[in-house]
Structure formats: C-alpha cells, structure tokens
C-alpha cells in the first residue's frame, strides 16, 4: 500500500513517511482557499501525531486567511455538528479513523459539516496541486480561537432531539460498559451515558491514542468488552472506533452483535416514532430491508461512503440512514455518522421495552455477512460485470457500486477498493456457512478471470 493516499475526501498516510507536516499544511491552505477564507472548525482524535498535524493545519489555514475555531481533541461527528452550529465555512478532522496508530489523515467538510463530494474534493486537489500563489498578505493572516468543550453542545443536541427521551432512560438506570479504544470518544461517550442516567463502567477510555485493541469495533476486537459486560451484569456494552463515528453493541449475555445491527436497532426505534424512508449503502445487511418493509417504508441503497448516503437521505427526506459498519446517521441531530447518536437511539429502544437486549435482538431478522478480498485489477472486475450481465443471471443485478447480485436467499457484492488493488467480496446469507460459501465461490470466480 502506498504510504500517502490522496483522495477527494482528504489525505491519509503513515506519519513521517507519506504524511508529513508540509503536505498537511499545503492541503490545508488549498482547503482554506477553496472555502474562501472565513471560519473553519478544526478537531483531532487522540493519536500521538495529532498535535503536530494540528499545528500544520493551523499554519496552512492561517496562510489562507481563515479564522480557525479549534475544538482540540474531539470526535469526528462533534466537528461536523460544530461546523453547522457555529455557521463555519468548513471543517477539518485530523483522524485516520480505524487505521493503525502510526497513520493519520486530514478530512475536509463543507459548510454543512458534510464530507466533501467528489466535485468539491477535486477542486481542493486542483488548488493543492497547482502552483498558484494563494497566500494572503501578512496583514490578513488568519487567527486561532479555542472552544474547550463543545462536547456539552453535542450531548445537548442529542438529548434535546425529541426522539431521545432522557427522562425515560434515566428512570431505567441502565448498567452500561463502554469501550472507546482510548480514542476520541473516551470522554464524550461516557459523559453522554451518565447524562442518560446510566451506571457506567469504562474500559479503554483514556484518551491517549494507545489503541489497546484492534481499532475497528468488530466482534473479534471486543473480547474485553464482552467479558466486562458479563462480569458487571451490565444491560448492554458499547464500543466505538478511534474517531467515534462507528458503533457496535454487545448484549447482556456478552454476545457481540454484528456491527450491521447497530443501524438495524437504531432504525427500529426511529421508525417506531416516525414514518419515513431510510437509506443505506449497498453492502449493508438485508435485515434493514425487512425492517423497512415491516414499517411500510422504502429503503434507498447508495454507493459505499458516508457522503453518498447523506446525499440520498437529503434527496429522499429520509428519517434515518447509515452504513453497516456501525455508522448511524440521524438527521434530526445532524447529517453524519455518529456513535453518540447511535448509543442514545439504542438505549431509547431498550428503554421502550421491559425485555433484555438479547430478546429484542433475537426477534430481529437474522443474516450473516462474510467478507473477503481478492487481489485483482479493477479491469478484471469490469470484465466480470460485463460477462455477468450478458449471461443474464437468475438474480437481480445492482450496479450502483461495483456489482451486487441479489438472489432470493442471499446476496453478493463485488466492489473495487479505492485504496488498494483489490476487489472486496461481501456476501450475506441466512447462515455463516452459506455466506462463507457464497463469498468463497465468487472470490474464486473472480480470481480465475
Ligand atoms: Mg471512524
């Protein structure tokens, strides 16, 4: 893998190799010029390289004449919300999300707190790559101001949203364990739980950037959380990724629910309160189709990536949406994947019923996902897509993002990675064995092209 990746959503790389302060400053200036100066919100996760890149971002933005509003260490969704609430021209998140500790990234947001779409992202790239003189006159150099605890505003936005009913949750006094991988959620997520009247046991909630488990909140990384849930007789466990836009849940038996079910549970709650369509990327579980059908609403499928889901949600006026990797988007609060929002919605769901989470989960439609990677060029995938179309499979074909074949009892999705020369093969079926066998079959077919 290259150690610097430049894309329309920002730049990402290994610290000190691909990703260096001078590159970060250059792209920050480009973004500042793209925004036309004005207030820009900046925040970072807990990575050790965060403060270094924060200063590079400041430098770059000041050179473009921007007024920086610095939130310091905070989650990505907190930055998104702040851009909107503070009426900034844009935002920058310094986080490599679930990438390892030695990586970092700079991601750009527009004046609605949404990640840049392809067109705007390209414009920033063009400015960064051109040699144009964009620096402002020395009298017009930008400024930096600090907001210490925007977390309070973020929590307020959640508990005052209307759908979330703090009194009801406080009455239940849930016993909760939370694991924030020592990332940006380490302060705000436990604070939110306390605000909702929970007894909170914290693990990995020291915001020091030491990712003590695998960074993604997937079942294989949640062993400690599962054990602590059982030992403390907790009602539920929550885990997020280092910048807290993705959330996963563990039931009271210490069973990690697939992160696909974070959105399913959140959607169940929202649809019980208000009728409206939902949106999710094409790789997200079919359990969501069942939930939509039961509620009598439509589900809109999009390309993978938060911005695609958000655009569709705005276009179709959806009441909830997100991605199967644990990313819940609830427009009543803001248009961004938000682990704090997901936490509040799921606790609200739990408080509506007198039953334990395991019972509620067991009543949901169940599907199992199997994911593989095949190292092939993207033209191989294109060829395979053409061939599949010609052969006219007895399946529904969806080419929103790569190729998705939908059969009555399973689906398979083949999608090229934007960052590696691989194709991701994702299959979902009614059992783990079947999902594995389907993903295996397609991976083989692709490799033999
Ligand atoms: Mg993330």
Q: How is this structure best described in words?
A:
The chain is an alpha/beta fold and 449 residues long. Helix content is 38%, strand content 22%. The chain contains 15 helices and 20 strands. Strands 1-2-6-5-3-4-7 form a 7-stranded mixed β-sheet, sandwiched between helices. The two termini are 23 Å apart. The structure holds magnesium ion (MG).
Give, in spatial order, the strands making up the sheet with the most strands. 1-2-6-5-3-4-7
Number of separate helices: 15
Distance between the termini: 23 Å
Uncertain spans, ≥5 residues at pLDDT below 50? none
Amount of beta strand: 15-25%
Which structural class do the helices and strands define? alpha/beta
User: What's the average pLDDT?
Assistant: 94
Proportion in helices: 25-40%
Count of DSSP E strands?
Answer: 20
Outline: globular
Cα gyration radius (Å)? 22 Å
- Summarize the main sheet: 7 strands, mixed
Task: Identify the bound ligands.
Answer: magnesium ion
Characterize this entry briefly:
This protein is α/β, with parallel strands linked by helices and 449 residues long. It has 15 helices and 20 strands. Helix 7 links the parallel strand 8 and strand 9.
Helix and strand arrangement:
Elements: E1 4-7, E2 10-14, H1 21-35, E3 38-44, H2 50-63, E4 66-73, H3 76-85, E5 90-94, E6 103-109, H4 118-129, E7 143-146, H5 151-159, H6 166-172, E8 175-179, H7 185-195, E9 199-203, H8 223-231, E10 236-240, E11 247-250, H9 260-273, E12 278-281, H10 287-295, E13 299-302, H11 306-316, E14 320-323, E15 327-329, H12 339-352, H13 357-362, E16 368-374, H14 378-391, E17 396-398, E18 403-406, E19 411-416, E20 423-429, H15 432-447
Parallel strand pairs: 3-4, 3-5, 4-7, 8-9, 8-10, 12-13, 12-14
Antiparallel strand pairs: 1-2, 2-6, 5-6, 10-11, 14-15, 16-20, 17-18, 18-19, 19-20
Residues 97-98, 241, 243, 245-246 line the site of magnesium ion.
